[in-house]
Amino acid sequence: MIRVDLPDPVLELLAKAIARMPGRTAPNYPVGLRVEKGSVGILCREEEDSANYGELRIPNAAVTGPDITVFVNRNYLAKALGFGMNQ
Fold first, then answer.
1. Is 81 exposed, middle or buried (0-12, 13-18, 19+ CB in 10 A)?
2. Cα distance between residue 53 and residue 66, in whole Å
3. What's 4-28 look like in SS3?
4. CA atoms within 13 A on the CB side of 32
5. What is the C-alpha to C-alpha distance for residues 27 and 82, in angstroms, rounded to an integer?
6. In degrees, to the nearest 5, what angle opens at C-alpha 21 toward C-alphas 69 and 46?
7. What's the pLDDT tens digit per position in 41-53?
8. Which residues, 6 or more positions from 50, have their beta carbon under 8 angstroms from its beta carbon?
9. Is the distance from CB of 60 to CB of 7 less than 8 angstroms?
10. pTM across the whole model
11. Residue 34, helix vs strand vs coil
């Protein structure tokens, strides 16, 4: 099981940052959530066929579980963060 707890003070800032990240016009509006070595980052890329991702590290997130990367719709993620969903 993987669990990520985001600190409340960064939720609104993170939601706004996600809306401005590159790749806003890609189909399904993807961003990646990368859990790696006990830390969390959000991945994005400008070009859909590019292999190069930019990453925004999230400070002070509490992480348990193995490393994993998943891609989600950025609009839904930003909305969930805006509602205060921090786990």
1. buried
2. 21
3. EECCHHHHHHHHHHHHHCCCCCCCC
4. 19
5. 22
6. 80
7. 999 988 777 778 8
8. none
9. yes
10. 0.84
11. strand
